[in-house]
Write a structure and sequence with these properties.
Length: about 120
């Protein structure tokens, strides 16, 4: 599997998201959650490990999100509150589509070259 170089990930200031009591923080969190779409890839820290996973399902009220990793058996089901906590602590970031495609191409080329 291809490792993600966390130093290359886009960064977003998390201070705003972590100020839970402020109206601005609540609005920013809602905007972020509302922007989630099936098919988008993320790098997230769950249960002591970094995972690269794609959104496979979002509940109608956006209270639950199912992520599927590069290994289809890797499934991560998260509540909205868990996602908000990850975001507030800088433990989730969206991966740009180009980087996902580039990683897939790199993996394919590596496989074709024999490793």
């Amino acid at each position: 599997s291809t490792d993600v170089d966390r130093s290359e990930l886009p960064t977003v200031p998390v201070q705003l998201y972590s100020e839970h009591d402020s109206p601005d923080a609540r609005a920013a969190l809602k905007h972020w959650i509302d922007g989630l779409q099936i098919g988008h890839w993320f790098h997230l820290f769950i249960q002591g490990n970094w995972h690269t996973a794609q959104i496979a399902w979002i509940s109608e009220g956006r209270q639950y999100v199912l992520f599927v990793g590069r290994d289809p058996d890797e499934r991560l089901s998260l509540t909205r509150k868990a996602l908000e906590a990850l975001l507030a602590n800088g433990l989730i970031t969206a991966l740009e589509d180009d980087s996902v495609v580039q990683r897939a191409v790199d993996t394919l080329m590596s496989d074709l070259d024999g490793g």
